[in-house]
Amino acid sequence: MTESIVGGFAALNLHPAVLSAITAVGYEEPSAIQAQSIPVILAGHDMIGQAQTGTGKTAAFALPLLSLLDPARREPQILILTPTRELALQVAAAFERYSSDMGGVKVLAVYGGAPMGPQLKALRQGAQVVVATPGRLCDHLRRDEKLLSTVDRLVLDEADEMLKLGFMEDIEAIFQALPESRQTVLFSATLPASIRAIAERNLKSPKHVKIATKTQTVESIEQAHLMVHADQKQAAVLRLLEVEQFDALIGFVRTKQATLDIAEMLERNGYRAAALNGDIAQAQRERVVESLKDGTLDIVIATDVAARGLDVPRITHVFNIDMPYDPESYVHRIGRTGRAGRTGRALLLVTPRERRMLQVIERVTGQKVAEIKMPDAETVLEARLQRLTNSLKPLLEGAEAARGEIGTELCRRLECTPEQLAAALLAKLTQGQALDLESVRREQPAAPAAARERPAGDRPERAGERSGEARPRRPMEPLAEGRVRCRTALGKRDGIAAKNLLGAIINEGKMVREAIGRIQVRETFSLVELPEEGLDRLLGRLKETRVAGKALRLRRYHEE
Ligand code: ADP
Ligand code: MG
């Protein structure tokens, strides 16, 4: 299973500890700039890389450089120059993440506005990776010109930005303070003459890597974007889903974990949603796609890799919940809708620092991506009432006189008025969803961490409903033939991930991977789909099994 996920990265000869860290971060495939830069940097060449913002340049240099680093040497080995303090912190955090499995790697950010003493001390205490803004680093060099004498690899990140900020002289001074024999890598979105001149003076026969941005058209797809802060994304997703009239929708995120988190959040909010990522077995992936096709599912949350080639005519909406990492994959993503001559709609969430990527997308597609605002409470309420009206209308027409008598009888037994009865039925039908303006305003969408076990029995199922109507709340996806669900009381709060359960069941249960279906890890419990045949024997084999130090105690799960 794992081969297919990290296949793209696995072929790149990265250090095994770096590879395992990327897997943990959840990247499935190298972006174009990564696939092309990593071999060049690993081979020790100087390099000039040109690619737009958001294409994954940090990992393009961080992964090969970490692979070349010697953790036993406790002195600066890698120096990254970035234009701003914010970027220095971001790049340092990325290095920390990618080196978390290596052991003994220290990363230091050096920037202005913080006291110099502690930075210098940390530098001398053997941080191997130094991420710095040029100005502050030069201040340090003036006090100790030997400071960088051990650095053997240098990266200029966002070189064009650094020049715009007037760092030309500082950068030249830093070049002079580094050993002649160093490797130098320069990344920039644009290559003006000033940058080429720097490269000419300081790089040795550099290889060029350029990710071209081609113009591609996407007619028949209506595009819109919404500006959000990263922590408002889930709320934005919920609100947009309420007001958008979709039939089936595919949402794109960057990591496998995000597919699970968002799909779970949507399920909790009453949508029929599932995750699609590289960790999910092929057979199960096919089932998800089939369910989306036949209308058993309405929403699939996928990574780019898992959704490759997906062709479901029912898809009316593509939702870019996370920004794609290049314009090509944006075009590819939104091409999942508007198929076979139909029109489609593409929504894009943009966080403030991704603004530039939005411009790139507009340039590449040659189309304006209109801005929309977060739907306000009035709009959300109107959409709810509309859906409710649509779903009740056909029932009203079909209602027989006999039902009226039952109503009267119920009112008598409950000692209530028909209005009170209607209100109670409505509350049951809508699962207590807010239907007045004040409550909608106050409403906070269910937070991702607060996973609750949902009572499965009290959900009125109404057949034949599609978009634009109140959706039946479906607690679980239907099971494939011959499979049953099993439950363990271990969940996220026990530090459990799907792969831990999978590993335990495969190893101790002596199962093949293909026999195990979908695994859902919730906060306080997890569900695993297993073959019904031989289940008792399997559960017997797993009787003493412990995962993350705790007893697994897998049991057949009865939904009724
Ligand atoms: P750039 O420097 O080109 O603007 P970044 O290196 O900041 O881009 O990467 C942008 C985002 O893309 C980051 O959130 C990063 O974690 C993510 N990312 C990078 N590479 C991958 C990948 N191969 N798969 C998924 N996400 C990635
Ligand atoms: Mg960058």
From TrEMBL:
Keywords, ordered alphabetically: ATP-binding, Cytoplasm, Helicase, Hydrolase, Nucleotide-binding
The Helicase ATP-binding domain covers: 38-209
Q: Where is this region: Disordered?
A: 438-481
User: What general EC class does the enzyme of this chain belong to?
Assistant: hydrolase
The protein's matches in SUPFAM superfamilies, at most eight in alphabetical order, are given as:
P-loop containing nucleoside triphosphate hydrolases (SSF52540)
Q: Which Pfam families match?
A: DbpA, DEAD, Helicase_C
Q: Where is the DEAD-box RNA helicase Q domain?
A: 7-35
Molecular function GO terms recorded: ATP binding; hydrolase activity; RNA helicase activity; RNA strand annealing activity
Q: From what superkingdom does this record's organism come?
A: Bacteria
One GO cellular component term of this record is:
cytosol
Record's keyword annotation contains Cell wall biogenesis/degradation: no
Please report, in chain numbering, the residue ranges of the motif Q motif.
7-35
Catalyses which reaction(s): ATP + H2O = ADP + phosphate + H(+)
Q: What is its EC number?
A: 3.6.4.13
Domain Helicase C-terminal spans what residues?
A: 236-380
Swiss-Prot/TrEMBL GO biological process terms: response to cold; ribosome assembly
Q: Where is the composition biased (Basic and acidic residues)?
A: 451-481
The family this protein is said to belong to: Belongs to the DEAD box helicase family.
Q: What is this protein called?
A: DEAD-box ATP-dependent RNA helicase RhpA
